[in-house]
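Technical note accompanying the year-one report. For the benefit of new consortium partners, we illustrate the data format agreed upon in the data management plan: each record pairs a sequence with a structure-token string. No post-processing was applied to the example shown here.
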Amino acid sequence: MDWLLNIKKIKKEKNLTNDALAEMSGISIGTLNKLLSGASADPKFSTLCALSDAFGISIDEMTGRKKQAEPSYIKNEYFQKYMELDKDGRDAVDRVLEREHERILREQSLATYSLDMPQTRSIKLYNIAASAGTGSYLSSSDFTNISIYSTPVTDEADFAVKVYGDSMLPKFTSGDILLIKSAGSVNIGDFGIFSVDGESFVKKFGGDRLISLNPDYNDIKFSEFNNIVCFGKVLGKLKK
């Protein structure tokens, strides 16, 4: 297990005892001893996250895993072709890119971490759902860490929320897990997570209102008395 040897090497370089590392990482001494002895061949992702945080390095660096970078000549070739297009051509490429971006997000599924699997990352999933109907408060501390596949798309997400309700059908259904990029505002037409007077919603931003896609629900029109906060932009959803 090369990854274990790498962890032991880093621990030795930092001159840490097992007790000190357990305290720094929040991992129980029993779990840590079991891991370092080689008894845990497939550690939990949360354990690896805690260790990498304690060491102050990434999981890839800690375990010795490396990403394979795309050859630069491929990037340059596509970029050159894009720059040679006229405005209509670039707009067409942008539309396809956006559609495929959303498709990839839909195909992402939750996964248990394994060192033999594609790289994953941890993200906060808020336990109180953002309402797609009547609204609910999005707590800043009530969350669970979940593991998702790490891709250029999902790496943009800062947290995740569950959808509750059916006001955003057919795009979002109750139970969907949405990936959110933190933002204090979004553009008109973007989907986002908003708080209106303490209740959170996933809606389409309409400038002066939050728009529901399901015609059975009214839009939420803003007034001068509303306290409105934008939590972030919806990037897409995870596959159930």
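Partners are asked to follow this layout when depositing records. The helical segments are 2-13, 18-25, 29-36, 45-55, 59-63, 72-83, 87-107.
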